[in-house]
Each structure stands twice: as structure tokens, then as C-alpha cells.
Amino acid sequence: MSFPAFFDTNVLYGALLNDFILELADRGLFRPLWSQDVLFELAKNLVKNGEDPSLVEKRVGTMELYFADAMVSGYEDLVPTMTNDAKDRHVLAAAVRGGAEVLVTFNTRDFPAASVDPFDLGVVHPDEFLLDQLDLYHAPTLRALVELVEGYDSPAMTVDDFLLALARAGVPKFADAARAKLY
Q: What is the SS3 assignment for 103?
């Protein structure tokens, strides 16, 4: 069974970062986890920020369909026992219930060590998570990157364009490391 990684809403929000993470998961490099609350928050935020509701529904539905085993449930009773930032207690509770080894989030401050240490759970920034994938699975990670970009046709994009977009999406160290390994 693959390494279980729980993804906070903010990591799944950007379309290209989401595509790349799920491409890596689809190749079996890790098992993605999320909750209904995370997907609800994702859809709500995308629509609130101007995305077409039908496209948002399609995106979230596709995630649920292709990663049917990613959905964590039965964590609600843990939420009140969590000691991290109140607005993200549902995230930590779901990560714990799902047996995640890492919780991937841009908001690492919302999950202080004291709140996660009892659960033997690491909290990592998506940049560090992707650097770990590159380190552990060098060739499959780069192959996923190149093949994902080759599949884009609307708009077509180069690997450099994609890496620049990933850097802008909050994972600049990964983009630089991948660029260095590719070229």
C-alpha cells in the first residue's frame, strides 16, 4: 500500500498544482487522502472566486471518481479533541482518522508540533512534499511532469511554462530542482 498523504484544501485549490499532485498519485507514488469537508471547502472557494460551478462540480467529481479510496470519513468525533488552529481541526482530525503519514498544507503554522506529535504525523509544505517525491522517485516524478505537460492542449504549454506556473503556485524550490534535473 502506498504512503498515505492528506491534502489540505489550499494545496488542491490551484488547478496545475492539483493536476501534478494527482498525476503523481495516479502513478502510485503515494496515496492521496482528503475529506468531504476539504472537497466542500475547495468547491466553495473555487466558485466564490469566479470559477464556473459546473466545471468545479466536474473537477471535484473527477477527483472523487478516480481516487475513490482517498475519501476519509468518520473523523467528526475527533474534531473537538484536536488542539491545532480551530478552523483547521477538521483537517487534522481527518488526517489522523485516515492514517496519513503526512499532512500537506501551505498553512503549516496552523498545525503546530504539539498538536500533531501525539499522532506521529508530519506536517509539510507542498514544496517540501514535492521535493521529497523528486528525491525518492526521481525518474517517475520527472516522467509524470513531462507527460502531464504533453497532454495539455488548451492551452498548450511547455515544461518551462509549467514549472514557472508551479513556482508561482507556491512550490518554487521544487520547480527549480525539477528544472535542474531535466536540463
A: strand
Rounded Cα distance, 74 and 61, in Å = 20
**179 CB burial (10 A radius; 0-12, 13-18, 19+):** middle
On whether the CB atoms of residues 116 and 88 are closer than 8 A, the answer is no
Q: What is the pLDDT along the chain (183 residues), one digit of tens a residue?
A: 589 999 999 999 999 999 999 999 999 999 999 999 999 999 999 999 999 999 999 999 999 999 999 999 999 999 999 999 999 999 999 999 999 999 999 999 999 999 999 999 999 999 999 999 999 999 999 999 999 999 998 888 999 999 999 999 999 999 999 999 998
Alpha-carbon span 70 to 79, nearest angstrom: 19
**What's the distance, CA 172 to chain centroid?**
15
Instruction: State how far the Cα of 106 lies from the Cα of 13, in Å rounded to an integer.
Output: 11
